[in-house]
C-alpha cells in the first residue's frame, strides 16, 4: 500500500470534463487516454453521446485484460485552456479520467514534480497534492425542514458541511453516510454511499424512515 504525504505533489491535476470537475491521473505508461464508464454516465452531456465501436486490446500493468466499450470525443478544460480529445471508455476502473501518452505527447507535456506543475504548451496547471485526494470527515444535515408521516420512508436532500473551507469537492467524489441521531427520535437513517454534490443539491441524498405508528 502506498501512502500519500499530504503536501507532496502527485500525478493528478484538477480538470473539468464538460462542466464536471474531476481529478485526472497523468499516466505516461498508458498509450491511450481513458474515461470510466461510471463517470461517463454521471455527466449528462456524455451519457447520451454515442460511442464509436473502436475496441482495443488493452491490458493493465499486471497483464489483466481491460474491458473497453469504445471511444468518445470529450471536451476537457485544464487551467484556462480547453481541448477536445478522444477517450477510450473503460469498465471497472478505479480512475474516473486518465490522461495517457496520446494526450501528453500531442500537447508537449512537461511534468515537473519538483515544482508541482504540468506544462502543456504555454499553459501551466498545478499538480494536486496528497491532501486534495485524502478522505475527510464531514457533517451532514437535511437541507430543508421536512415532515415525515408515520410509517413512511422518504428520500431527502442533504447538505455536506466540510470541516475546512479549503476542501473543494468534485462531483465525482463518493461519500459514505453513517447516521448519528438520537435513539429517542424514532427516525431511521440509511447507511448511504452516494456521489457528493459540492452545493448540497438534490444529487446528494439519503433515505430517512419514520417508524412511529401515529402522528
Give an overview of the whole structure.
With 215 residues, the chain is mainly beta. 7% of the residues lie in helices and 41% in strands. The protein has a 6-stranded mixed beta barrel with strand order 1-2-6-3-5-4. It has a 4-stranded antiparallel beta sheet with strand order 10-11-15-13, with no helix packed on it. A hairpin with a 2-residue loop joins strand 4 (68-78) and strand 5 (81-90). The longest helix has 6 residues, at 37-42. The radius of gyration is 20 Å and the shape is elongated.
Unreliable residue runs: 165-172
Structural Rg = 20 Å
Task: List SSEs in N-to-C order.
Answer: EEEHHEEEHEEEEEEEEE
The biggest beta sheet reads: 6 strands, mixed, barrel
Class derived from helix and strand content = mainly beta
Give the terminus-to-terminus CA distance.
Answer: 52 Å
Tell me the helix content: under 10%
Strands, count: 15
Strand order of the largest sheet: 1-2-6-3-5-4
Give the averaged pLDDT, no decimals: 79
User: What overall form do the CA principal axes indicate?
Assistant: elongated
The fraction of residues in strands falls at: 35-45%
Summarize the structure.
This protein has 215 residues and is mostly beta strands. Helices cover 7% and strands 41% of the residues. It has three helices and 15 strands.
Amino acid at each position: 500500500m502506498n501512502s500519500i504525504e499530504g503536501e507532496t505533489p502527485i500525478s493528478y491535476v484538477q480538470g473539468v470534463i464538460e462542466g464536471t470537475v474531476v481529478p485526472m491521473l497523468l499516466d505516461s505508461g498508458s498509450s491511450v487516454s481513458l474515461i470510466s464508464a461510471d463517470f461517463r454516465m454521471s455527466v449528462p452531456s456524455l451519457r447520451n453521446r454515442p460511442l464509436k465501436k473502436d475496441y482495443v486490446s488493452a491490458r493493465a500493468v499486471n497483464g489483466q485484460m481491460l474491458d473497453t466499450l469504445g471511444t468518445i470525443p470529450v471536451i476537457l478544460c485544464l487551467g484556462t485552456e480547453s481541448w477536445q480529445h478522444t477517450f477510450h471508455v473503460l469498465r471497472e476502473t478505479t480512475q474516473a479520467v486518465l490522461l495517457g501518452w496520446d494526450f501528453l505527447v500531442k500537447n508537449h507535456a512537461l511534468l515537473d514534480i519538483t515544482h508541482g506543475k504540468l506544462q502543456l504548451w504555454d499553459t501551466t496547471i498545478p499538480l494536486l497534492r496528497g491532501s486534495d485526494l485524502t478522505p475527510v470527515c464531514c457533517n451532514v444535515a437535511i437541507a430543508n425542514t421536512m415532515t415525515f408521516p408515520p410509517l413512511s420512508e422518504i428520500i431527502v436532500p442533504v447538505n455536506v458541511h466540510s470541516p475546512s473551507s479549503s476542501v473543494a469537492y468534485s462531483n465525482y467524489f463518493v461519500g459514505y453516510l453513517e447516521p448519528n441521531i438520537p435513539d429517542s427520535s424514532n427516525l431511521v437513517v440509511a447507511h448511504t454511499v452516494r456521489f457528493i454534490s459540492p452545493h448540497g443539491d438534490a444529487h446528494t441524498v439519503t433515505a430517512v424512515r419514520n417508524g412511529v405508528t401515529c402522528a
